[in-house]
């Protein structure tokens, strides 16, 4: 039963669309075999070492709901140059780092099994916002019609304004 | 749809059975609001800083399958004294730390949605092994009939021998 449930994970990984995704995964696996990290691995992974990052999607959902803060999920890959370039700009952008404190934060290298997190496919970098009502804010998008949740480094101001938009909590109507 | 899928997560959390679980969660949430961590948060969380830890269950399953290493999942809570006591013994046990290198490792503070990871309920500390064929090794148990996957610090030798048992990879018969 378990094998069936999770086989989809492996199939989905193949669909990741950053050009270097597959090579990156191989390389990373190789590196971890050959050399050990000298410092413990971090949850921030360089997206903001001073921010508080959640470890898993389940934790992030729980914390978003209980704290009433929106959740920001960054899908990325260590050896994807687009992800790395966005990370650099994100980490160095003081206003974004400050605004990020108002969010529950999660960065993921591996996709979850929740299809709500890939409204238009799985690719990296891909940033999604989730309201504390646990509604995916599919309306908060970037500039690219074929990859609605992708951002280039030059889109950092749009990302900032999208973060501001996400902070306006949805009202539950029921 | 999403709200429904994940509402179970919150209900499950309530079922955690370490006596201090609920207080611990509250305290942790409070602490993170009041003070920021000076060092980036780590994936090891003190269970072995020199070991390589995966971040999520999806990552761990993928790495177990592709590397043909068994997966060891430690469920724990930061402010649960039983978890803390086991962690101390685990981290200081040289043979266990050495043997742990042969596993894909994951420690989780929040439960996943996979019921296969709670064969006899959700409690902490709770250690489960998964074969690279993605079969939960429900046969690898500790001493306590009411909590088959719990270990006390005095059970560390049993845990060591259970790790050795888990390293004997199951053969797929099909």
From TrEMBL, chains A, B:
Q: In which broad location class does this protein mainly occur, judging by the first location in its UniProt entry?
A: endoplasmic reticulum
Where would you find this protein in the cell?
Endoplasmic reticulum; Secreted
> Which keywords does UniProt give here?
Endoplasmic reticulum, Secreted, Signal
One of the entry's Gene Ontology molecular-function terms is: dystroglycan binding
Q: Where are the transmembrane segments?
A: none
Please state the span of the N-terminal signal peptide per the UniProt entry.
1-21
Q: Which InterPro entries match?
A: AGR/TXD (IPR051099), Thioredoxin-like_sf (IPR036249)
GO CC list: endoplasmic reticulum; extracellular region
Q: Does the keyword Transmembrane apply?
A: no
| The keyword Signal appears for this protein | yes
- Provide the family line: Belongs to the AGR family.
Name listed for the protein in its UniProt record? AGR2 protein
